[in-house]
Amino acid sequence: GSSKRFASLAAAVFISRGVPVYLFSDITPTPFVPFTVSHLGLCAGVMVTASHNPKQDNGYKVYWESGAQIVSPHDSGISKAIKENLEPWPEAWNSE
Q: What are the recorded Gene Ontology BP terms (predicted)?
């Protein structure tokens, strides 16, 4: 579905910028990502989710290295950076 495609594209962008990625192939419960980030000592985590919204409204939740979800006011900075960089890098579309 669209969530897997969105996750693959997000992973491809990180990889294209030299950021190591763990991309899990199956649907996981929300606590899985913050636990994994904390347990593996990762710098951050991203979970693709539509949450309680329709599946076409995919978005993602971002977690700090501690496993805590990034929320206000930090989420505003991330949202602003996304909006200012809506044109993806050409290699970002290659999710193979």
A: carbohydrate metabolic process; purine ribonucleoside salvage
Query: What is the domain range of residue 9?
Result: 2-93
66 is catalytic: no
Q: How many domains does the chain have?
A: 1
Q: What is the pTM of this model?
A: 0.70
Please report the pLDDT score of residue 87 as a whole number: 76
Catalytic annotation, pick one of 2, 51, 66, 79: 51
